[in-house]
């Protein structure tokens, strides 16, 4: 008699966003892992509590009925405290199950997290697909790269796993495991991983590495065509016919970026599906690119602007100029594409008057949308180390690392930033936050 398939359950904990700020995006990281597990004959399920919330008792009942062998959790920093509860429930319900935590926060504070969580067995850091597959296949943990685990009551940190060089070898994400109709953005893709830039606030390189690895243009087009054929064309669909591209740096190679657009046009997918970019560098944008993006039915581009002061951009090691931002916004708008810009409030050496110049810059740009958040020094980043030397942390609670007041969005007195400096107090930072709110959402 053959052995039953090993069952792996992957969990996205429910974030504590206020309802007015919720925008539900399908968890691409976990569906990539699930896709590789399924390709290798393993059984995988996903529970995304952002769209299918469970009570403690409901979750426990599910565990006892399904009885997974491995339960993996993924958590960003502000959701980590809540995730600990679900890990505890899992271990108490199924003591023999293997509990695993991955995601950005786990990669940044791996040993500390394992030490403080007696119900957690393994931390997966860095890219998780191959690591999870090796664990699920029962490989000796001593030889699994990219994990931290307990060995004879001691914490053992294995060497990091090298980044996947050929991303085209990964199977498509197992999106069929999700309740796609419940997401605001059910379909998103990654055409590349890694970022060669050195912004001091960003933790991306801790997950994906600094080496930029790009999928072949044709493989990207093939996936978009696959999504169209499998989720839109076969029957009447209520899905919004749009795809979000979530790369840190989509157009580092302009020739490849243009080839993706040309592939969509050639297959007439631009007549059927809109694309949008959730983050793009202004210095990599030119007229040739935006013209081609428009032809490929690009409807929106968000730029990481961060500040309206050149000194602040330099402090952030953004390696970008205000004139490059102005030019990029102008080119995008002239191409007939809507443009949004994200700003950060409370950067190194910033003061109240300088932050208000960011508001002035946002007005000057005449953006279609304005995004804004309080600068947040995530652990493991250069910014976090800067705050240790030049500022004061105001909280020890990871839930406060959200960048905005999700606890009670309407109560302006209930929330403060993660840190302050002598030049820019917590009260002043919140003043600018609410001024950005008024600009972005005028009544």
Structure summary:
By secondary structure, this protein is of the alpha/beta class. The protein contains 15 helices and 17 strands.
What is the secondary structure topology, with strand pairs?
Blueprint: E1 7-12, H1 28-39, E2 43-48, H2 56-66, E3 70-74, H3 80-93, E4 98-102, H4 104-108, H5 110-116, E5 122-124, H6 129-136, E6 147-151, E7 154-157, E8 188-189, E9 192-193, H7 204-208, E10 213-214, H8 217-231, E11 242-245, H9 254-266, E12 274-280, H10 287-295, E13 298-306, H11 310-315, H12 322-334, E14 338-345, H13 352-365, E15 369-374, H14 382-390, E16 392-393, E17 419-420, H15 426-440
Parallel strand pairs: 1-2, 1-3, 3-4, 4-5, 8-11, 11-12, 12-13, 13-14, 14-15
Antiparallel strand pairs: 5-6, 6-7, 9-10, 16-17
Helix pairs in contact: 1-6, 2-3, 8-9, 9-10, 13-15
**Gyration radius over CA:** 22 Å
Relative strand content: 15-25%
Q: What is the strand arrangement across the widest sheet?
A: 2-1-3-4-5-6-7
Instruction: Indicate how many domains the architecture comprises.
Output: 2
Number of strands: 17
CATH second-level architecture of the largest domain:
Alpha-Beta Barrel
Q: By helix and strand content, what is the structural category?
A: alpha/beta
Q: If helices are DSSP runs of H or I spanning 4 or more residues, what is the number of helices?
A: 15
Taking the sheet with the most strands, its summary is:
7 strands, mixed
The CA-CA distance between the termini, in Å, is: 67 Å
CATH topology-level fold name of the largest domain: TIM Barrel
The first-level CATH class of the largest domain is given as Alpha Beta
CATH superfamily of the largest domain: Aldolase class I
Helix share, percent: 25-40%
Mean pLDDT: 92
Uncertain spans, ≥5 residues at pLDDT below 50?
none
Choose one word for the global shape: globular
